[in-house]
Amino acid sequence: MSVFPTAAHLASWTGVCPGSNESAGRVKSTRIMPGNKYLKGALGIAAMSASRGKNTYLSVKYKRIALRRGRVKAIVAIAHVILTATWHMLANGEVYTDPGADFYLKREPEQTKTRAIRQLKTLGYDVSLTPAAA
């Protein structure tokens, strides 16, 4: 992996790096960059497979991005995540550990709690919380 000093260099060479087409504060839509078509194709297939997984970090990340940006852009984003994780595994000798499907819930617990309370109040429930005994 000494050819690529960072994961961003590898993503750029592959053609799955996020674009930066912005002018006057407006982000413009663009296609993905040309790159190694064989690696990009394999990453696309791996990303589609990972997005269909059950209770994994990559499937939750795919769903979050697909809601906002669309399915195709979400696949490219998951391919970028897979490639970045692969670079770190090969460069540092690390083993991939999946953060889990509840990664985003654990990252912002206060926000998760207030969102759940707000949703229950919208449904017409009166909510009062008591901390659980440890």
What form results from the Cα inertia axes? globular
The profile of the biggest β sheet is: 2 strands, antiparallel
Tally of individual domains:
2
Main sheet strand line-up? 1-2
Number of strands: 2
Average the pLDDT over all residues and give the rounded result: 86
Q: Radius of gyration, rounded?
A: 19 Å
What are the low-pLDDT stretches, counting only 5+ consecutive residues below 50? none
Percent strand: under 5%
Derived structural class: mainly alpha
- The H/E string reads HEEHHHHH
Distance between the termini: 46 Å
Oligomer: single chain
The number of distinct helices, counting runs of at least 4 residues, comes to 6
The share of residues in helices is 55-70%
Give the topology, please.
Layout lengths: L6 H8 L7 E2 L2 E2 L9 H15 L5 H13 L1 H22 L10 H5 L1 H14 L12
Antiparallel strand pairs: 1-2
Helix pairs in contact: 1-4, 2-4, 3-4
